Amino acid sequence: MTKASSVNWQTWQAEMPATLMFVVRDGKVLLIEKLRGIGKGKVNGPGGKIDPGETPLECVVRECQEELHITPKNPLKMGELWFAMSDIPDIHCHVFMATDYDGVETATEEAVPMWTAIDEVPYERMWEDDAHWLPQMLAGQMFNGRFEFTGEKIDWLEMHFGDAAAAEWKHV
Ligand SMILES: CNc1ncnc2c1ncn2[C@@H]1O[C@H](COP(=O)(O)OP(=O)(O)OP(=O)(O)O)[C@@H](O)[C@H]1O
């Protein structure tokens, strides 16, 4: 992108901390169809807002339990997403991966599970930013992404990948 960001990312702070989890096993990723909340109707990973006093890791495990009745094993933080939004609160999202889980993935009032081949991820049904980091993350790269949205459209973005990206995270 050529235009400058209108956000001062050094001092930017999100109103809403949130999480996402992507369990990957046998060349497939466990996605959800989201039935309520922000991004209702879209495909995403399980996740949600961090409760007061909760760590990102505690949140992502709780959200997987609530949304799909699974407990991810050995979750690993892979990235941060900083979203400056136009009509909903700004979001600071912590993204995790896991290779296994306890329990049986179950549809709930919040989410329908969708095991999806990694090369068949339906990016057209997801938030627009996902195509800018999910393929790289599924290939094992850590990342830091900054996005300005107007409504549901990106009008500025910057992505960094690898160990240097992890050094930019606001939270470990
Ligand atoms: C703007 N581009 C975006 N790209 C990818 N993912 C995005 C996103 N914007 C929000 N998200 C995710 O959407 C969930 C919202 O949280 P949400 O489901 O509303 O929270 P929670 O389950 O706590 O709320 P309810 O109990 O339904 O009120 C949460 O995982 C968050 O990371």
From TrEMBL:
Known catalytic reactions: 8-oxo-dGTP + H2O = 8-oxo-dGMP + diphosphate + H(+); N(6)-methyl-dATP + H2O = N(6)-methyl-dAMP + diphosphate + H(+); 8-oxo-dATP + H2O = 8-oxo-dAMP + diphosphate + H(+); 2-oxo-dATP + H2O = 2-oxo-dAMP + diphosphate + H(+)
Biological process (GO), any one: DNA protection
PANTHER family membership: 7,8-DIHYDRO-8-OXOGUANINE TRIPHOSPHATASE, OXIDIZED PURINE NUCLEOSIDE TRIPHOSPHATE HYDROLASE
Cofactor(s) needed for function: Mg(2+)
Enzyme Commission designation: 3.6.1.56
Keywords: Hydrolase, Magnesium, Metal-binding
Pfam families: NUDIX (PF00293)
Top-level taxon in the UniProt lineage: Bacteria
EC class (word): hydrolase
Assigned protein family: Belongs to the Nudix hydrolase family.
Subunit structure: Monomer.
Annotated Nudix hydrolase domain residues: 14-143
GO terms for cellular component: cytoplasm
Keyword Metal-binding (UniProt): yes
Transmembrane segments: none
One example GO MF annotation: metal ion binding
Annotated function: Oxidized purine nucleoside triphosphate hydrolase which is a prominent sanitizer of the oxidized nucleotide pool. Catalyzes the hydrolysis of 2-oxo-dATP (2-hydroxy-dATP) into 2-oxo-dAMP. Also has a significant hydrolase activity toward 2-oxo-ATP, 8-oxo-dGTP and 8-oxo-dATP. Through the hydrolysis of oxidized purine nucleoside triphosphates, prevents their incorporation into DNA and the subsequent transversions A:T to C:G and G:C to T:A. Also catalyzes the hydrolysis of methylated purine nucleoside triphosphate preventing their integration into DNA.
Protein name per the record: Oxidized purine nucleoside triphosphate hydrolase
